[in-house]
Design brief:
Layout (H helix, E strand, L loop, with lengths): L23 H12 L4 H8 L3 H9 L1 H9 L15 H19 L6 H19 L14
């Protein structure tokens, strides 16, 4: 006997709603409607998006408006942040190092990886001469 639970929107429980990209143009329109005082529920229904999506758009309003000042098409959906040469090269070298450690069957701890990242970053910064790339570099848990 098969039981299936249904969510209120008709999707079967356990299946995720398909991800839908929202263009910059739509994000701007959503922001304008909310700022004009239109009810959040009306905006969510007119664009068929969750309330949390509207909240995220409003939270990132400043980034969206800054993005619009650039010569990027309004049909784009994401904001890309240009990363420095040091970061790109460091990630490539880290990937090679991790693969090498894997093939040698060396166990890696978070602390060891963070130390390696910091040393690679500092070496590349000296080699490539990028002093003012950022305030400081922190090897995060991610």
């Amino acid at each position: 006997m098969s039981r299936s639970k249904h969510k209120s929107n008709g999707d079967v429980a356990g299946t995720a709603k398909k991800h839908q990209a929202i263009t910059m143009e739509t994000k701007v329109k959503i922001t304008e409607k909310v700022e004009r005082g239109e009810k959040m529920v009306d905006v969510t229904h007119s664009y068929n998006v969750n309330r949390s999506t509207i909240g995220t758009i409003l939270k990132n309003k400043h980034k969206i408006m800054e993005h619009l000042k650039s010569a990027v098409p309004m049909m784009s959906t994401i904001i890309l942040k240009k990363r420095g040469k040091v970061m790109e090269e460091m990630e490539k070298l880290l990937s090679v190092w991790r693969q090498d450690q894997y093939h040698r069957q060396v166990l890696l701890s978070l602390m060891l990886i963070q130390e390696k990242v910091k040393s690679l970053y500092e070496d590349l910064k000296k080699k490539l001469g990028e002093e003012s790339e950022g305030a400081s570099f922190n090897a995060s848990h991610g």
